[in-house]
Amino acid sequence: MSRRFPWIRQSLVIWHKELRIEFRTRFAYSTLLMFAVTTLITISFSVGGFVPDSDITAALLWIILFFSAMAGLGRTFVQEEEKKTVTALKLAVAPEPVFLGKYFFNVTLLCSLTVLVVPLFLVLLNQSVPQWPPFLVTVILGVLGLAGASTIIAAIVAKAEAKSAMMTILAFPVLVPLLLAAINATRACLAGASGAAPASELYVLLFYNGAVLTASLLLFEYIWNE
Amino acid sequence: MFWQSILGLWLSLVILASFLYMPATQGLGESGRIIVYHVPAAWVAVLAYLMAMVNALGYLRHKDLRFDRQAQVNAELGTVFCILATVTGAIWSRGAWGWYWNWDPRQTSIAVLLMIYAAYFVLRNAVEDPQRRASLAAVYSLLAFLTVPFLVFVVPRVYDSLHPDLINLESRTFAMDKKMLVVFLASLAGFTGLYGWLYNIRLRLENLLHRLESKREVS
Questions:
Q1: Mean pLDDT of A169-179
Q2: Among A4-8, A122-126, B139-143, which is the least confidently predicted range?
Q3: How close is the nearest chain B Cα to the Cα of A73, in Å?
């Protein structure tokens, strides 16, 4: 299979390289984790003993995940520019496998963050989840979408000046449909067992993922070779 | 000067007609007159953004900075008309719904549209090299515009909007008084003309600035 689809093998190699670099420093992961935990503790602390409505907790969860992604994934391509490894990477593989490899890596990072943060969030805010399966699907699709849009925006940011501030500004408008759908789906899942599963929101999340990934693969070449 | 005078006269007549000739709308009363300004402004914003999109694709295909200047001018004009549509919409919303802003799905999507282009201009300012700026801006605008169908078509369908629809999809009819339709279409044509004129001036100015800059680099 890997002979017929060289992209898959190449992107897995890039993914592996990213993982190895990350394990040496653990810079991105610790930023991501510390950012999420700090926000979570601030929220839990300020909410105190008061149990917030599930309408509000759904929004809070996605605010935490969104800003953590912005803080942790913004450097995806910046490190290649700073360490001058861009040229070597350009010579080694086509643009698309680079994008896919970075995307897989960002998905890995965000998923490992979510596995820690979401249970902690539910525990600290004393929130029960009446509808588990749709909740898990929402979180997974939402995190995939966050990683996808962050990867392509991070590629743009790496070529611009004022890198640290640009990430959030550029990513937010692109991510609004995803966040709206994810917040509403989460709200429905947290609200109660009697409520219907948020099917239409899950479709929006699915199609958003497909659209962003396709567009990113088509457009990435123009950023990468700039 | 000839066409500009005609345009000025045309739009003045539209303004007069919108208050004197056109009847007040059913249900919405006097506040419905804003349709003559709000809808054409939104239409021009969509048109200009669409043209900016076409120009962005053109730039990515031909790598010619002329397309980038066109995209920039179209994005600027689109934003001006988008702000006009947002403000007129908010004023009308105050009259009809009691609130200037209540996050109706239509208001959400137009706010996000404005944010996309605000981010687009921030990105343009953050890149020095013209070629690189053009590519990054083109890619970003294409990527961001991709999310607009989600907002425009999905959000108002999933969440109920109070925004009036001119075209009734179920009965396939177009609900508008004859007199009103005449004024409305005249305003649509006038606004489109206004856009064409502004575009022409802005693009000529940008082209002159570009020539001035390239001359300075040579000497």
A1: 90
A2: A4-8
A3: 17
When scoring B147, B152, B153, B160 by the number of chain A Cβ atoms within 10 A, the one with the most, hence best to mutate, is B147
Q: Is residue A12 part of a domain?
A: yes
- The tokens describing B33, both together, are 């007159």
Residue B181 structure tokens? 């339709």
Across the interface, whether the CB atoms of B146 and A204 are under 8 A apart is answered no
Min CA distance, B198 vs chain A (Å)? 27
Query: Is A223 an 8 Å CB contact of chain B?
Result: yes
- Asked whether the beta carbons of residue A173 and residue B144 sit closer than 8 angstroms, the reply is yes
How many domains does one find in chain A? Answer: 1
A226 touches chain B (CB under 8 A): yes
Element (H, E) at B4: helix B2-20
Interface list for A 150-209 with B (CB within 8 A): 152-153, 156, 159-162, 166, 169-170, 172-174, 176-177, 180, 200-201, 204, 207-208
Residues β-bridged to residue B174? B167
Option in B142, B150, B154 nearest A215 (CB): B142
Please tell me if residue B218 touches chain A, with a CB cutoff of 8 Å. Answer: no
Q: What is the spatial distance between Cα B56 and Cα A151, in angstroms, rounded to a whole number?
A: 21
CA–CA–CA angle B17, B162, B24 (5° rounding): 20
Q: Is residue A152 part of a domain?
A: yes
Yes or no, beta carbons of A201 and B146 under 8 Å apart: no
Predicted pLDDT of residue A139: 94
The three-state secondary structure class of B219 is coil
Return d(Cα B177, Cα B25) in angstroms, integer. 8
In a domain, A1, yes or no: no
Residue B77's pLDDT band, with cuts at 50, 70 and 90, is: very high
Domain that residue A166 falls in: 6-224
Are the beta carbons of A90 and A225 closer than 8 angstroms? yes
Q: Rg of chain B over CA atoms, in angstroms?
A: 20
**Cα distance between residue B115 and residue B113, in whole Å:** 5
Angle at A168 between CA A167 and CA A172, to 5 degrees: 120
Predicted complex ipTM: 0.85
Domain assignment present for A202: yes
Chain A CB within 8 Å of residue B134 CB? no
Q: Retrieve residue A23's tokens.
A: 């394990």
Classified as helix, coil or strand, A202 is helix
Contact A172, A79 (CB under 8 A): no
User: pLDDT tens digits for B160-215?
Assistant: 666 776 554 455 555 677 788 888 899 999 999 999 999 999 999 999 999 998 88
